[in-house]
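Notes from hallway chat w/ T.B., transcribed later so I don't forget. T.B. wanted the structure written out for a chain they're using in a teaching module, and asked if we could keep both sequence and structure tokens in one place. Agreed to drop them here.
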Amino acid sequence: MATATKLEVLDAKGKKAGSVDLPEAIFAAETNVPLIHQVVTAQLAAARQGTHKTKNRGERSGSGVKPFKQKGTGRARQGSVRMPQHRGGGIVHGPVPRDYSQRTPKKMIAAALRGVLSDRARANRLHVVDGFGIGDKPSTKTAREFLAQVAPGKRVLVVVDRADELTTLSVRNLPFVHVLFQDQLNAYDVVVSDDLVFTKAAFDQFVAGRAAQEDTK
């Protein structure tokens, strides 16, 4: 069984309120930069719509009549005003709708996520909090002040569990703050964030989910 190190859990005032174990299998893995680059590139490619399209000669509107007679003008013969060399004509070799997604094995995706999480843990950019100190209704101001104290980075990724609606509503409108559920965590969103902030409930669910995946292998 993999050993684990400890990470402090902070309360709403930024003070220590306990600790959690950081399993080495998840938070002490090798950071394989080429692998992470490949996985992130594939993720960005899959997000592309691929709906770009230009009209070819047959799809352009316009008359099919010859613009001028075939012979006697001294000009090159022309068959239609919809030909590419005419203004408003069709586009030659233009983009067509396509699927940009790349096949990426699940093991590579998991390894890339472990690598970026481990990098954030080694750089002390991984934080676990007991709560944001939010009352019984959402408060963006409270969330902003708390994150400024806990996560010094300019871009912050907040990970919450699906039942934590108050935190989600409180942080989602903050600039440079991105919020995800623990089962949505991915390499790209971690890479583009300076600090990673887990709520205690989300962290426990994430670690338990990863452990269950390892057991099924």
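Follow-up for T.B.: The chain has a mean pLDDT of 91. Might be a good example for the class.
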